[in-house]
């Protein structure tokens, strides 16, 4: 049974009434579960803010807890005004609810009914597909392009007479890529009448690239655009459950028509208003995110893993093997990451505290050293990655990669196959290692000009490079 909408509530001022809405009576989708650990270190699967709520928001949550016996602002007007002020919009253009999750459902309830189609990218955050189907509609998936970017041309080509809504996640989850502002502008110009475009900007604040732009300006330009935002990410309030839509006053009214009243608690209201004012915490979050991303990128490179560079607080990494066993093995070591989205070799990793990232990379190194269920592409093999300069005169630098904790021997032989110098012969941790050769033999004597062979052996892997010494 559906409760009364906030607008009906507003109009009838408390007179009980019911609305039958598309999707009424459905079972709520619950996409995934996690055994909540007491210590959240290692929970890098939900793109949460590792710094927690802002100190101002935390204080507001504490203060409001004492008023938990009092109903909140039923219609979220307090937060709608604060968001409108913050973004330079009218309060009538803002609709607040219990997270982006509630707002995405309400967008579907307002725009998608039986037989209607929603177009969305694949892979992407696909709650809207669940909502569309629950409402008797259909989801049309359009693959991202070869650069992992949402393919707007293909989305335009997928429009039919039944299309009611196009749902874009910008920047996209799980790929971390954004739509170029010029591509978005040309796309908006081509949207046929009668179709709304919903842009989920849950990760908007993380993007630093100047080719990215929020879609908020399209609202005042008269486009049928709905922007979805959340306090769950950069504002660190995922557990408080609060988010909002931005759209024209008319569209906002349509969303309010299908919204229940009082779904947001008073502590969440207070926390959101305080969080908006705490730019210091937002900056600290963005700085940590940047440092954490750099650490992850370097760590993946050292492990010989390819990743998809991301504009957000998460990234996809290609394990080179089936990802599911990697996810399980990481969980046993205390790190929760996600896989799925039809990308069977990839895991999605959220940024975290730097110590947490260090621990995660060590765990990943351990797991990658023991997980070997090749699926198509074999994992990047250990071996000699570079020798530079080559030819050399005084010293050459040697860069190798190892995959597991196992003895590595790195030996230089002359053209007759005689051992000249052993650079290493011991167990090394998985990752990248650097050595150098100064052109001397084991006795410290300079050897003659000529071609030498550098040979690396680790377990069953062997790798050889020739090095030329020129005096
Ligand atoms: C793109 C995107 N939209 C919406 C949500 C849901 O956010 P909220 O916590 O506000 O419900 C998420 C959560 O991860 C997300 O990644």
Keyword list:
471 residues, four-stranded antiparallel sheet, 3 domains, 24% strand, binds pyridoxal-5'-phosphate, Aspartate Aminotransferase, domain 2, seven-stranded mixed sheet, Immunoglobulin-like, elongated
CATH class call of the largest domain: Alpha Beta
Corresponding CATH superfamily of the largest domain: Type I PLP-dependent aspartate aminotransferase-like (Major domain)
Low-confidence stretches: 9-37, 372-379
* Tally of helical runs: 13
CATH topology grouping of the largest domain: Aspartate Aminotransferase, domain 2
Q: What is the domain total for the residues?
A: 3
Bound molecule kinds, no repeats: pyridoxal-5'-phosphate
| Beginning-to-end CA distance, first to last residue | 87 Å
Strand content: 15-25%
Mean pLDDT: 89
What is the global morphology? elongated
Strand order of the largest sheet: 1-7-6-5-4-2-3
The whole-angstrom Rg is 27 Å
SS elements, strand count:
18
Q: Provide the structure class.
A: alpha+beta
What is the CATH architecture assignment of the largest domain?
A: 3-Layer(aba) Sandwich
Largest sheet: 7 strands, mixed
Question: Helicity, in percent?
Answer: 25-40%
């Amino acid at each position: 049974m559906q409760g009364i909408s906030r607008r009906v509530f507003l109009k009838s001022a408390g007179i009980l009434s019911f609305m039958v809405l598309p999707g009424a009576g459905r079972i709520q989708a619950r996409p995934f579960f996690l055994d909540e650990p007491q210590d959240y270190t290692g929970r890098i699967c939900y793109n949460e803010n590792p710094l927690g709520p802002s100190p101002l928001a935390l204080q507001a949550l504490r203060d409001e807890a004492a008023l938990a016996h009092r109903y909140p602002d039923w219609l979220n007007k307090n937060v709608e005004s604060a968001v409108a002020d913050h973004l330079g919009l009218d309060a009538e253009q803002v609709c607040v609810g219990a997270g982006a999750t509630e707002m995405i459902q309400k967008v579907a309830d307002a725009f998608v009914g039986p037989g209607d189609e929603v177009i969305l990218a694949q892979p992407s955050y696909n709650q809207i597909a669940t909502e569309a189907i629950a409402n008797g509609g259909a989801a049309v998936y359009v693959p991202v392009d070869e650069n992992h970017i949402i393919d707007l041309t293909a989305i335009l080509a997928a429009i039919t007479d039944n299309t009611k809504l196009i749902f874009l996640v910008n920047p996209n989850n799980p790929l971390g890529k954004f739509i170029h502002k010029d591509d978005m502008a040309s796309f908006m110009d081509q949207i046929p009448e009668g179709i709304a475009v919903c842009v989920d900007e849950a990760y908007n604040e993380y993007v630093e690239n100047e080719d990215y732009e929020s879609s908020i300006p399209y609202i005042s330009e008269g486009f049928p655009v709905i922007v979805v935002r959340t306090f769950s990410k950069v504002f660190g309030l995922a557990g408080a459950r609060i988010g909002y839509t931005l759209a024209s006053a008319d569209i906002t009214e349509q969303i309010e028509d299908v919204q229940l009243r009082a779904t947001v608690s008073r502590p969440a209201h207070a926390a959101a208003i305080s969080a908006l004012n705490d730019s210091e915490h937002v900056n600290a979050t963005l700085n940590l995110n940047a440092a954490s991303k750099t650490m992850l990128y370097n760590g993946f490179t050292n492990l010989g893993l390819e990743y998809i560079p991301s504009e957000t607080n998460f990234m996809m990494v290609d394990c080179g093997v089936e990802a599911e066993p990697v996810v399980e093995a990481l969980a046993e070591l205390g790190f929760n990451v996600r896989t799925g989205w039809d990308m069977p070799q990839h895991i999605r990793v959220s940024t975290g505290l730097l110590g947490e990232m260090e621990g995660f990379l060590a765990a990943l190194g351990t797991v990658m050293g023991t997980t070997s269920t090749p699926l198509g592409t074999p994992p990047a093999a250990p071996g000699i990655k570079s020798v530079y300069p080559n030819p050399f005169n005084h010293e050459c630098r040697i860069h190798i990669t190892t995959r597991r904790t196992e003895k590595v021997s790195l030996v230089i032989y002359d053209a007759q196959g005689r051992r000249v110098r052993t650079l290493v012969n011991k167990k090394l941790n998985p990752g990248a290692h650097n050595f150098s050769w100064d052109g001397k033999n084991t006795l410290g004597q300079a050897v003659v000009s000529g071609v030498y062979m550098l040979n690396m052996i680790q377990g069953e892997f062997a790798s050889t490079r020739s090095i030329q010494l020129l005096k």
